[in-house]
Design brief:
Helix content: under 10%
Shape: globular
Order of helices and strands: EEEEEEEEEEEEEEEEEEEEEEEEEEH
CATH topology: Jelly Rolls
Number of helices: 1
CATH superfamily: Jelly Rolls
Bound molecules: manganese (II) ion
Structural class: mainly beta
């Protein structure tokens, strides 16, 4: 998915100074963002005062939306650089096309992982014939400096490893959880996992004390370290934990996101991550002149023009909004 916010703002994030070294319980409220004419998403990252969790730097939760009589998701071609996009659905499907020739339908609980590296463009749409409901999350992972100009590529994995405990089933979307590793390529130590809890279940999820974590509620009612987390909200948990207490009040579904705190300061603007305002300005110029980001074939519609750069120069201006 694209950051279609027409009021695109620059954000600067990353660096150790912004990380909670100890366990914390910081409940993040979403910001509602309209994508196109009909779709609304709840944006959890970047959030006021909290911009990253490990290398995870963008989190949208959308649906469940009844799209039986609607086109559903329609995101025309747009560029990315310096990041990976993760498509994760609970209901419905998304048809992905990109400028390196990928054409892939990503279904529920399948990993659609696009590594933009130095530059790629893609479109995402609900297929003409689609399921009644669309429910999912769109996430970005920042690439560390050593890998951010890697060759762009797309991976699709329908078969992901699972970790189970009584009342809890975890699917490892990306990275490693309790020794189980996703086949998706990662470029920094991190984890993304989908947790399904049955009503009444209590469990302690093993965590890496060197990672910082957050949990996003997808559906149902669960307590995370004692805190009720409702769908669309995300609880930031800080670092220093070896176990995460979970309790399901009803059948519930959570996304666990975590990783080693991202040391590098990054500049995010629209769908790009760079290290300086000059890099972002170059990316914008390249997209608007049709270079670097390639061409998406087969999408019925024009590419999305980049928003104007802000009048003030893009440069680091602190980690908090
Ligand atoms: Mn996108």
């Amino acid at each position: 998915m694209s950051n279609l916010d027409d009021q695109a703002t620059l954000s600067v994030c990353g660096g150790r100074g912004f990380v909670a070294a100890e366990p914390v319980r910081e409940l993040l409220s979403p910001r509602t963002v309209k994508l196109g004419a009909s779709t609304e998403v709840r944006r959890l990252l970047p959030n006021l005062g909290r911009r990253m969790v490990g290398a995870w730097c963008f989190v949208d939760h959308y649906g469940p939306d009844d799209i039986a009589d609607e086109p559903g998701m329609q995101v025309p071609p747009h560029p990315h650089m310096g990041l990976q996009t993760v498509s994760w659905l609970h209901e419905g499907e998304v048809l992905h096309r990109d400028s390196v020739g990928s054409l892939q339908t990503v279904g529920a609980r399948e990993l659609g992982l696009m590594t933009s590296g130095r530059g790629i463009s893609h479109s995402e749409e609900s297929p003409t014939s689609h399921a009644k409901f669309l429910h999912g999350a769109q996430l970005w992972v920042a690439l560390p400096d050593a890998h951010r100009t890697t060759e762009p590529h797309f991976q699709h994995h329908a078969d992901l490893p699972a970790v189970t405990a009584p009342g809890v089933a975890a699917t490892v979307i990306l990275g490693t959880l309790d020794g189980a590793a996703s086949p998706g390529t990662t470029y920094s130590p991190l984890v993304g996992a989908d947790l399904t809890l049955t009503a009444g279940a209590e469990a302690g999820l093993p965590l890496d004390p060197d990672f910082e974590y957050a949990v996003l509620a997808m559906s149902g009612e669960a307590r995370v370290d004692g805190v009720p987390v409702l769908p669309g909200s995300m609880l930031y948990l800080g670092c220093g934990r070896t176990e995460l207490p979970l309790r399901a009040v009803s059948d519930a579904s959570l996304l666990l996101l975590g990783g080693e705190p991202f040391e590098e300061e990054i500049v995010m603007f629209w769908n790009w991550i760079g290290r300086s305002g000059e890099e972002i300005a170059q990316a914008r110029s390249d997209w608007m002149t049709g270079t670097r980001f390639g061409e998406v074939k087969g999408y019925d519609g024009a590419p999305i023009p980049a928003p104007e750069l802000p009048a003030t120069p893009l440069k680091p201006r602190g980690r908090r909004r």
